[in-house]
Design goal:
Helix content is 38%, strand content 27%. With 119 residues, the chain is α+β, with helices and mostly antiparallel strands. Strands 3-4-5-2-1-6 form a six-stranded mixed sheet. Strand 4 and strand 5 form a beta hairpin. Helix 1 runs antiparallel to helix 2. The longest helix has 19 residues.
């Protein structure tokens, strides 16, 4: 399996582990000039859950792939946390912040896969 695909799947599992909602995978491989190959976007209910989602992604990726992110931004306010793995960017939002920025609409030419919520 492709290492980047495995990274995306591992990130999704980390988000699902802490009940991340409305997870989408944005495939940017065919978009010329894109800053990464994939974006994984999700939301949490409150800043505490945003932090837990971020921690879960970090732990799951580190445990399964022995990779650490290049950078993590936004933990202080935990309204929008960005995690950069180079080929994959993870965005974890509060619902209101996600709605305001609506990153998915910026990449309408890409393939967007919605992951069903686990209840």
């Amino acid at each position: 399996m492709n290492q980047t695909i495995f990274l995306v799947e591992t990130i999704v599992k980390g988000l699902q582990e802490k009940k991340g909602r409305r997870i989408v995978i944005v495939d940017l491989k065919e978009i010329q000039g894109a800053i990464c190959q994939y974006m994984v976007i999700c939301e949490g209910n409150n800043p505490n859950q945003i932090s837990s989602l971020s921690d879960s992604v970090w732990e799951m990726v580190h445990h399964n792939l022995r990779e650490k992110p290049i950078s993590v931004q936004g933990l202080r306010n935990a309204q929008w946390v960005g995690i950069d793995y180079g080929t994959v960017l993870v965005h974890i939002f509060l619902p209101k912040t996600r709605s305001f920025y609506h990153l998915e609409s910026l990449w309408e030419d890409s393939t967007i896969k919605q992951i069903p919520d686990l209840d």
